[in-house]
Write a structure and sequence with these properties.
The protein is an all-alpha fold. It has 16 helices and no strands. It is globular.
């Protein structure tokens, strides 16, 4: 019943029918919940995953934590490539042009396969020297290199999983990708337990387990996209060309290039942050990495709501409905800030208990808990930046938001972190992070309410 109701309400967007505030909120919530559950499930399973590694000792946690930000950078580049095509699909669906949506999908498969091969090759080639570039010591460099090389080899699985997920979500189907991402988390934990403990492969086992989980999930995601999606399936339809064409590729570059540049420079900023933390010692590196894992419990709901916002704004934008686009945007941001405020309070209260799940080392627990309690105060504004960005992506407006993210990260967070770390250690780094996230949320809200991000909407 819920799925049919969502489908009916989404058709209201494409057909230009009026929607009440209650219907809009119900649609936002119903599309957000599966994605939020998947995000939270991913974080919980990552907790278990990190706990498995954490119980191998501080060196194992530090080895993965050292290269983790570089992995996020490469994953972010893949996500930007996927979004360059899936936003176009959302706009085409909103305009009731399903043939164009499928044409974009076919071309995206080819382009993203090529892109993932390039990224994977780069990852494998740099895996050896990477830990030393990041300031890692000899005692953790080998494990860090092996972990990153295996994850790099699995890049195509991450890419295809992400592409299938983003395409299904932009078509309005949140349940299938969310369910499959939950399955991926469960498989990750099962495989990691087997390879880490049963086969005694340590950090290498964690990477192999994650890669296998992504392989299975990617295969299932593509099956539901290409064989089962009512709007986007390709199997059973007349054969059409998969050759990339200039109009689609150029639009993908226009949308995805600023996101790619943002991910590169934001990933670079995370790497610089790691360089700032690395001299503080193994305990600080481990506490920093594990505290980031705990904090993700707080901000994952924001990303779930942002997914819904991207879909609803994308389809409203494609349908040429300016006021509906703005309404979905503002209601989504309000919901995200409310949810993440509650999560921030819970994180502040239960910080020591959450850290103790990931590691038995008292020094890591104490330092990580202090960092989390500092960060808790920034969560409402962090939510504003997350969901606003999802809104702007749905509108295909990625350049200015990317510049805003980059300016905030490099000019505020890193400069403050470099200034505070020598005196205040890891807590100084997290104070800088909290200040920056608050500023970033403020400028995103200003753009949401006073910017001209809807100017390119073509009235239906």
């Amino acid at each position: 019943m819920a799925l049919k109701e969502n489908t009916d309400l989404l058709s209201h967007i494409r057909e230009g029918r009026e929607m009440t505030q209650a219907e809009k909120l119900r649609l936002i919530v119903s599309l957000s919940i599966p994605s939020i559950l998947a995000q939270i499930s991913a974080t919980v399973m990552f907790f278990i995953d990190a706990s498995m590694v954490g119980h191998l000792g501080a060196k194992a946690s530090a080895a993965i934590g050292l290269v983790e930000t570089t992995g996020w950078l490469m994953g972010g580049l893949g996500a930007a490539a996927n979004m360059g095509f899936s936003v176009q699909v959302a706009h085409a669906i909103g305009a009731n042009d399903f043939k164009r949506a499928r044409r974009i999908l076919r071309q995206s498969l080819v382009c993203c396969l090529i892109f993932s091969f390039v990224i994977s090759t780069i990852g494998v080639l740099i895996s050896g020297p990477l830990p030393y570039w990041l300031g890692g010591t000899e005692e953790i460099a080998h494990d860090a290199s092996v972990y990153f090389a295996i994850i790099g080899l699995c890049g195509i699985f991450f890419q295809m999983n992400g592409l299938g997920s983003s395409m299904l979500k932009c078509s309005g189907n949140m349940k299938i990708p969310s369910a499959l991402n939950i399955l991926s988390c469960v498989l990750d934990v099962v495989f990691n337990y087997f390879f880490i403990y049963i086969l005694n492969m340590g950090v290498m086992g964690a990477a192999i387990g994650t890669g296998l989980a992504e392989l299975i999930t990617a295969a299932l995601m593509l099956y539901f996209l290409l064989c089962r999606s009512e709007i986007l399936k390709l199997v059973g339809r007349p054969r059409r060309s998969f050759r990339p064409q200039a109009d689609v590729v150029n639009n993908a570059i226009k949308i995805g290039a600023p996101m790619s540049l943002q991910h590169m420079l934001m990933g670079g900023a995370q790497i610089v942050s790691t360089l700032i933390v690395a001299p503080l010692g193994t305990i600080a590196i481990a506490a920093h990495s594990l505290a980031i894992t705990v904090e993700s419990l707080c901000y994952m709901p924001g990303y779930g709501i942002a997914d819904a916002a991207t879909t609803l704004v994308g389809q409203s934008f494609g349908a040429g409905q300016r006021q509906l686009t703005k309404s979905f945007a503002r209601m989504s941001v309000g919901l995200g800030m409310t949810v993440m405020t509650v999560m921030g309070v819970l994180m502040f209260v239960f910080a020591p208990e959450l850290m103790s799940i990931l590691t038995p080392v008292t020094d890591i627990i104490d330092l990580g808990s202090l960092c989390l309690r500092i960060e808790a105060f920034a969560e409402p504004m962090f939510a504003a930046s997350i969901v606003c960005y999802g809104v702007f992506v749905g509108a295909g407006d990625t350049l200015k938001p990317s510049i805003m993210n980059l300016t905030s990260m490099w000019a505020v967070r890193l400069s403050l972190a470099a200034l505070l770390a020598p005196t205040y250690g890891l807590t100084g780094v997290w104070v800088a992070m909290a200040i920056e996230l608050t500023i970033r949320g403020g400028i995103f809200l200003l753009r949401l309410f006073f910017g001209n991000w809807t100017k390119t909407i073509k009235a239906s």
